[in-house]
Amino acid sequence: MRILFSATATKAAPWVSGLQAALPEAEVAEWAPGAPQADHAVVWAPPQQLLDEQPALQGLFNIGAGVDALMKLRIPPQTRVVRLDDAGMSVQMAEFVCHAVIRHFRELDAYEQDIAQGRWSYRKPRLRSEFTIGIMGLGVLGARVAQALQQFEFPVLGWSRSPKALPGVRCYAGQAQFGDFLAASRVLVCLLPLTPDTENILDRDTLGRLPAGGYLINVARGAHLVEADLLALLDSGHLAGATIDVLREEPPPAAHPFWRHPKIALTPHTSARTLREESIAQIAGKIRAMARGEPVAGVVDRSRGY
Ligand code: NDP
Ligand code: OXD
User: Fold this and answer.
1) pTM for this predicted structure
2) Residue 197 beta carbon below 6 angstroms from any ligand 1 atom
3) From 90's CA, which of 33, 40, 64, 236 has a CA 20 to 30 Å away?
4) Does residue 299 sit within a domain?
5) pLDDT tens-digit profile of 81-106?
6) Ligand 2 pocket test target in 274, 275, 276, 300 with most atoms within 8 Å of CB
């Protein structure tokens, strides 16, 4: 069995040696143009040339949860595209989103500014029951975030494409229930995949339907958000602030307004990182399951785009 590795902005050597150690029966190599035909490829945003030269791949394993970069490429029809299925990401996403929610709910930014100015002041505690958290996307990551937020007794709502029943979560589905979901969400967390249906979904209309004083946490993809619309709603005071982990251009140009906006907490696409060892173990397990003819989790439905 032959496996190729190709990942933009990632050191190949530890992945190649890790995959080789996990699959000693295979021959694992970093992809280069003209590489011999392989059975599987493990990739992040690979060049189109790899797919054009490898028409017989059985599995194309993405070393991330989001497959939007892959969906832009021409992929041979019989190749199964397989995403990372948690692999240590959901606990990171849960801690990141809980941190962002609590930081805002407890006004920790404001306390830090007070302390920096030598002020020992108290703010009136906010009502937890009014801090409804609406999660867009109730998949592997969204469901885990919903579960974690309930530990802090926030009312949690969720929105997905198909109807869901999650313990303790008020679930909404589809376009018909989108408006009701937004109107009830004081904090909006985006954990959708980026698809033609969800691109630009965080626009003036969507964000404007949050209650006054709403707060946005975008941990999915930069192209979900119309950045100018967020800025306008922050300036008008309709939104109280935002935590932004992902941007259309990463890193953003030096003049990008999000770098220094007083109401935006910016992080460098780090809310849930790919963990190499967990990911290699998961991919190796799936490659072996495929060789035995067994089904594997995380196969992307190309017609949906996720
Ligand atoms: P999943 O595929 O498991 O879940 C996606 C969820 O979104 C599902 O509940 C799905 O609904 C819902 N959804 C998809 N399309 C629509 C739509 N048009 N309308 C309403 N709901 C929709 O993905 P994950 O939870 O694993 O990951 C989500 C995203 O998080 C990734 O695609 C990636 O972009 C991002 N991500 C960001 C990271 C970071 O570090 N910032 C790290 C990892 C991931 P249904 O259940 O009905 O199918
Ligand atoms: C992912 C990411 O999709 O890191 O896994 O953004």
Assistant:
1) 0.98
2) yes
3) 40
4) no
5) 999 999 999 999 999 999 999 999 99
6) 274
